[in-house]
Amino acid sequence: MPSSPTDTLSPHERFCLSPEESFLLAALRIPLAASVPARIAGLASGVGDWEMLASLAHTLGVAPLAHRNLTTAGIAGLLPESVESQWRVAFTATLAKNTVLLSEAERILASFDAADIACICLKGALLAESVYPHAGTRPMSDIDLLVRGGAVEEAMAQMAHCGYALHPAVAATPSAPDRVYVKSPLGADAEWQVVVDLHDDLLTGRFGNRKVARLRLADVWERAAPAQVGQVPRLALAPEHELIFLCAHMSIHHGHLSLLSLCDVAYYAHARRDKLDWDAVAEAAGHWGIRRAVGWPLRAAADLLEAPIPQSTLSGLGADGRPPRVLRHLVHPRAPLGDPVRISQDAQLIVRSMFLDRIDDRLRFFAQLARRAGDGPPGAARGPTSLLALPLRAVRAMLELLARR
User: Fold this and answer.
1) Three-state DSSP class for 166?
2) Using CB atoms within 10 A of its CB, is residue 116 exposed (0-12), middle (13-18) or buried (19+)?
């Protein structure tokens, strides 16, 4: 059985969590650790500010999951009536929105299938139905689909056939790395739109960097496995690749570890515990140059949520000791329980680059600073003054990060 860093001490004991934080984490861990229900009544008795706890769960996007777990375990009565009502409403709203999104995903995939376009579902559309205990427990904001590079034009045509249009901002930027489509599910007066991110690559950088890491798409497609969304057959990433993607998307693409994303990692590791080849996880992450990007999210999921991550895997990924100083404020176990750390755009780019293993990959990130240096549109020629300012900006951003505790 995999061993976890939390074998001897609870997260509350290890990280000096507040009673409210401890209760929330325990509620999220109920399906992951058999001993949690027996301990949670004692944690509830220590909660002093239930409204703060309810607000924290809502802000972090985990209220539906916490409510469902407590209800399934028969202990939702531990919650004050007002909190239980708020979380129940959050679950119902999440289920309603997810039902629309999953139905749309099923319709789009059927269209792709009819056009013989291979497609891999990513993140929420995969996790909500097949990993979490109920489709209403994992909030979805959009639908992420991966197609082969050579099939992008055909996929774009099918999106139009399904009634979707390119987001205006993307339509105005032909070089945008992803194709983001929008459609109102309930007419022009709907409060929200269905958003579909059509990808032909994984880990596309937020600053337009096409090759953030050395992740080989040929490996990804070769090992993709059949699965289903509703009644429609589709493809999913191999378990090892899915786990790597969930971690690296968090660290490299977003540059911070969120509690909901850590739940994705923990619940996926738990649901696929009999299928995951942990040696293959470490090997692929090392081969693709993203050991840090995978190791530290896995460490956080094990620390906070008792995810079944083998200690040997954390050691192999270099996540069994102290993190690099510039990453310490981001990967500290308490970080996912608060708002994302507010840092400058330059500092964020450096943080994301530091999750990469290889120096040349990090330099590729710094090249993004050069493209953004000075005034003018992306891709415009840069004068010597702008290029000479790049090292100064990089040093200033590094000092900003090192000054944090």
Assistant:
1) strand
2) exposed
99-129 pLDDT, tens digit each: 999 999 999 999 999 999 999 999 888 899 8
Q: What is the pLDDT of residue 375?
A: 39
Is 162 in the same domain as 34?
A: yes
Say yes or no: 90 and 221 in one domain. Answer: yes
Same domain, 203 and 275: yes
> Does the predicted model carry a pTM greater than 0.85?
yes
Last residue of a domain, one of 303, 324, 341: 341
pLDDT tens, position by position, 359-375? 887 877 666 655 654 43
Structure token pair of residue 156: 């774009």
Q: Which residues contact 151 (CB under 8 A, 6 or more apart)?
A: 117, 118, 200
User: How many separate domains does the chain show?
Assistant: 2
Residue 235: φ, ψ to 5°: -115, 150
Pick from 341, 368, 392: which residue ends a domain?
341
Give CA–CA dist 271/250, Å, rounded.
Answer: 19
